[in-house]
Give the backbone structure.
Amino acid sequence: ETGVTQTPRHLVMGMTNKKSLKCEQHLGHNAMYWYKQSAKKPLELMFVYSLEERVENNSVPSRFSPECPNSSHLFLHLHTLQPEDSALYLCASSQDPGTKIEQFFGPGTRLTVL
Amino acid sequence: GQNIDQPTEMTATEGAIVQINCTYQTSGFNGLFWYQQHAGEAPTFLSYNVLDGLEEKGRFSSFLSRSKGYSYLLLKELQMKDSASYLCAVTDSNYQLIWGAGTKLIIKP
């Protein structure tokens, strides 16, 4: 148990569906992250939030929409996804957004887009 | 471009020693991380190196040579539970974290 939880753990959706991924951290951290992990590829950073404000958006398609209502919760809203969006989506948190700091990861949501 | 290279897969025997290499070409350097990720689970932090040399932590050690753009993770007295993917990540001059694709380590009895 790393203190970062994600729901759901598995999600299958059609290209016309709308769904949301949820992440919650119980560590009192100030920064939260969304990553995409595809098989045999490096982790891709999607979004970074610091104190509920987005500080980085790595050219992610608009069909992915993040939301950070408070420092403990992070959502990723999905709509009109493509099959190539199928991947493991990992949430992480750290004490602050500086990358000299260890990140704590959640178990991920395995997303399949049909 | 920025690049992190790790072997895709390695196999080792229980009780033995294995070294997983990581080479990097990045715009600047501000530290190197190793994470462990068991199948279907979250990556977990193993080590952080910012200065040259060897950092030892129990059965695991991590080495860094900044002049060579090279690091390795050394695992001793291998146990079956060490079967996992090992991810190398480098912080560049802009404090962006660049990730390798990971090395899948298979431990055989």
About this structure: Residues 6 and 22 of chain B are 5 Å apart (CA to CA). Chain B has a mean pLDDT of 95. The first strand of chain B starts at residue 3 and ends at 5.
